[in-house]
Design a protein that fits this description.
With 591 residues, this protein is mainly alpha-helical. It is built from 23 helices and six strands. It is 67% helix and 3% strand. Helix 5 (74-98) runs parallel beside helix 11 (245-259), helix 7 runs parallel beside helix 21 (503-527) and helix 17 (400-438) packs across helix 18 (444-467).
Amino acid sequence: MDAQSLTYLFVGLSFALYIGIAIWSRVGSTREFYVAGAGVHPVLNGMATAADWMSAASFISMAGLIAFLGYDGSVYLMGWTGGYVLLALLLAPYLRKYGKFTVPEFIGDRYYSDAARLVAVLCLIFISFTYVAGQMRGVGIVFSRFLEVDIDLGVLIGMAIVFMYAVLGGMKGITYTQVAQFCVLIFAYTVPAIFISLLVTGNPVPQLGLGAEVLDGSGLTVLEKLDSSLIELGFTAYTDGTKSTIDVFAITAALMVGTAGLPHVIVRFFTVPKASDARISAGWALVFIAILYTTAPAVGAFARLNFIDEVNEAEYTATPDWFKNWEELGLIAWRDKNGDGKVQYRAGSPFEGAPTFEDDSRGTHGERLLTNAESAGENEVYVDRDIMVLANPEIAKLPDWVIALVAAGGLAAALSTAAGLLLVISTAVSHDLLKKTWMKDISDRQELRAARIAAALAIVVAGYLGINPPGFVAQVVAFAFGLAAASLFPAILMGIFSTRMNKEGAIAGMLSGLLFTFGYIVYFKFIAPEANVAANWLFGISPEGIGMVGMFVNFGVAFIVDRFTPRPPESVQYLVEDIRVPMGVGGAHDH
């Protein structure tokens, strides 16, 4: 079978599995819909959490960012993995012990205020829709390339699949689907990495292959070869950073604390039977996540090295099929500036902005013609960072079944996280807005119907954002983390560890952190993108890292307002003390 047929087979089988699980796990109560009946085994929950956590940004985009950013891409590795540890140790067990369905419900009860709950819902929806845009974009890219359909149609197909198991099965269906998706995505990520490591270095362990010698007789290691190749082409050395120390620190911190404030990850810890299981499942999830995250730097380095070898100075007419396939989708583009028929890959932008193609017009060499204004410099190649992991098996000339496996894995990663996010959004609407705020007398059946309707509407909005994405997948996800860092994380942290923090302080902090961070991102990314340079940034911090400053704005405003407003009721102060006491000590109990 050829790669196309194998891709249809692998993707079709995986989708049949997901839909089968959804039908098997169809829920009949809100408790099953929201938290899978709180009966998921810690190891299975660890796998589901890992799948929920390792989104399209992790599978598709992170290694691509590392491939092109080099040392600067390490902020994503440090921030996301460090943040998960922070979440597992600092928040998850306490929130599970509190025993509520959602983050807004915790904030509403802890801060004894419907207004606080509404602000938390607002923050959650901002974060989740920003995040889900990246996932649906990833779905569209995978479908468009491997199933040869339009990106927009790919997004619509992804919406239909998510609708099936998110609306039918709720958290119960999503949990067991995510267990299957973890197995698919981790296998799909590591198998090509092992193949490529063997081809490049002879070492089957990608993590070790990253520091091994290249099998080309040069005597250079992978990183040394990459550094010398990039410097020769006018790029910065792969192992040198271009970001300022303060920006690296800010982006890493924003990703870390943003992780700990991500509602779709936090809610996973409500699905286990008791608080101690939350810690166990967090530990297992960290093990499962580490498999991919320790492989990603090697995948990124191998991808950039192979890309240079395959593309630079090649006759366009002799470029491999994968180059022309991605060119058809507008995710790779070439402009022959010097008329020699060869592809020159150099530092700099080949033309203004992303490629804009004429209507299937062809140039002298058969390339798709561009309408973009030509830019100065020698570089003739545009490549979308999001394609590197997906194109890697083709670039390395791996077997067709590996290419098909990567397609299934990319879809599993994107769909697993999209489903978790959409469920969080629907739960916020049906449980926190309706049941807890506006329509407190509705029955369990009515609430479940509202949750399903909200999930369906959220899928429609997510699809629109996937068709009209506001940036690279990983960039969009980084903004979601920044918003979470600036809004929900401080409120959750203070809610657990401060008996003094009151509702006025928490509400003012969440709103100020969210508005500051959102405004900063919108200004530099959409209103004045030409001003998005280090000289104009506040304290030299980029939009990707501004969530750290937003977090301090949140804390600062909250503490100032708190000092001029009444203390929380004694019952709330007792609640805060109680959820931090270990089980079996001083009469503490598992809620």
